[in-house]
Amino acid sequence: DAKTTQPTSMDCAEGRAANLPCNHSTISGNEYVYWYRQIHSQGPQYIIHGLKNNETNEMASLIITEDRKSSTLILPHATLRDTAVYYCIVSRPGSNYKLTFGKGTLLTVNP
Amino acid sequence: NAGVTQTPKFQVLKTGQSMTLQCAQDMNHEYMSWYRQDPGMGLRLIHYSVGAGITDQGEVPNGYNVSRSTTEDFPLRLLSAAPSQTSVYFCASSRNRASNEKLFFGSGTQLSVL
User: Fold this and answer.
1) A10: which residues sit within 8 A by CB, 6+ positions away?
2) d(CA A100, CA B43)
3) Please, what is the Cα angle at A31 between A26 and A37, to 5 degrees?
4) Which DSSP state fits B63?
5) Does A1 lie at the interface with B, CB-CB under 8 angstroms?
6) Which of A29, A39, B83, B110 has the fewest beta carbons under 10 Å from its own?
7) Half-sphere exposure of residue A99, counting CA atoms within 13 Å on the CB side?
C-alpha cells in the first residue's frame, strides 16, 4: 500500500472550514484513499473514502487531485467536537479490513 | 445493535500472566481484526480474520494468539504478558472486503503489564 504524509498538527477556528492535506505521491491507479478520525481515547471512526472523483457525505468532503498524488479532507464548519486525530490511509481494493494507520494529523478546533 | 463490543475496558497484569481480550460484534460481519496503539503512534495490525475458522497475522503478531470459532467473536490471547505489550487494544470489524465498506471499531481495552 502507498505511504501517506500528513502534517503533525493543525489548528482551526470554530465555525470555519478545516482543510486537512494528505500527500500520497506513490499511490497506484487502483488504490483508494480513506479518512478516519480518532477522538481522544475512542476507537477510530470512518469519515469518507474515494478513488478518483471528489466525494461528499454528511460529515465531510474529499477532494482528490487529478493526478491522485494528494488529497484534502474538508470539514465545512468545524466544531469543538471535531478536535481529533485524522488519519489519511491509502489501500488496495479488497484490503479495507486491514488498513495501515500512520500517526495522522491532530486537528484542534479553537473557540 | 451494539456494534463492536470489547471487554474489559481496563486491565492490569503482572509479567508472565495470561489473559484474553474479548471482542464481539452483532452486525454479522465476516471480517474482524485486532490493532494495538502505543502513545504517539498510529494503530498497528496484530491479527485479522476473514471468516469463522480463518485467521492470519498482521504487522505485529508476536506474543498474541487468536481464534475465530464463530462469526460474532474474535478473542485475543496473551499467553505470557510482557511489559512491551502495555498498550491500548482496538478490535474492528467489516462486513466484507469491498472497498466501499467501513471498518467499525470498538471502544478499546487499555492494558498495563507490570
Assistant:
1) A18, A20, A105, A106, A107, A108
2) 7
3) 95
4) T
5) no
6) A29
7) 35
**Closest chain A residue to B41 measured between Cα atoms?**
A103
Q: What does the alpha-carbon distance between residue B54 and residue B74 come to, in Å, rounded to a whole number?
A: 11
pLDDT tens profile A56-69: 999 999 999 999 99
Q: Nearest CA to CA, how far is B42 from chain A (Å)?
A: 4
Cα dihedral A79→B99→A27→A72 (10° resolution)? -20
DSSP H helices, A11-111, are none
pLDDT band at residue B41 under the 50/70/90 scheme: confident
Of B37, B32, B31, B10, which is closest to residue B21 (Cα–Cα)?
B10
Q: Is the dihedral of CA B108, B109, B113, B114 positive or negative?
A: positive
Q: What percent of chain A has pLDDT over 90?
A: 82
For A:30-89, CB contacts with B below 8 A are 32, 36, 41-46, 49, 51, 87
Residue pair A4/A103 in contact (Cβ under 8 Å)? The answer is no
* Cβ proximity of A17 and A26 under 8 Å: no
Tens digit of each residue's pLDDT (9 = 90 or more) over B59-109: 999 999 999 999 999 999 999 999 999 999 999 999 988 877 889 999 999
